[in-house]
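Protocol step 4 of 5: obtain the predicted structure for the target chain.
Materials: sequence only (see below). No template structures provided, no constraints applied. The aim of this step is simply to have a reference model before the mutagenesis design in step 5. Sequence pasted as it appears in the construct record:
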Amino acid sequence: MSRFILVTALALSGTLLQADGLADLKAALKALPQASKVSARIEEESREQEGGKDHIERRTVRLEDGPGGTRILEDSRLPAPAGKSNPDTSNAKKGDRPFEGVLRPAAGLLEQLDKARLVEERPETREGQPVRRLKLVLEMKLEAEAKSKLKKAVHEATVWIGADGLPIAMDQQIEIKARVLLVATVWTKVDIHIRYQRNQGRLLVLEERSDVQGSAMGKSFSAHETTRCSVLP
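Step 4 output (structure tokens):
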């Protein structure tokens, strides 16, 4: 091998080793500035089916989130006191952060990515923008007793990141099959689809959809949950 080819090969290999989308994603999440104040409306809908029966719940919340915590201004689950348009939220503790996974998803993402393993990275185009598509294997956090009963355990994710390393969207697939009571089997599969948004340097969830299906003790069940977050002026 000529000296030129050897130098070129080494240079290219160094570039490839540095092009680690998972490391870039972690670094970008850690580098996010302190979350500024934001007003938002969160809409939730859940549908559960078990034993041939459907159960539907809906909730709409208007809130403010900032360095001091989260303040819920309106909640469709809470009746407004007489003479007031908003529910009484004065008993909320300072620093509480309900809906943290929607309003501040970076911390939860970093926890999931702590022991993640990158299995594939490739360039793609999403919504007309160049992105990097990362395929990851995530850690399945289970207690030792639960692990001893597992027949199958899968936790995988696909993340699309922009030029700044921050996530644009993320899909997760979780599947667990376990043995219980010697002969019975419990099976659960969860598909999660998340889209993110940016607001004044802040990362928030735009939409999250979760589909759950499974069976236990001869009975099947399924559930679908959708959460949408709209930033208010």
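Step 4 remarks: The first helix runs from residue 3 to 18. The chain has five helices and ten strands.
Proceed to step 5.
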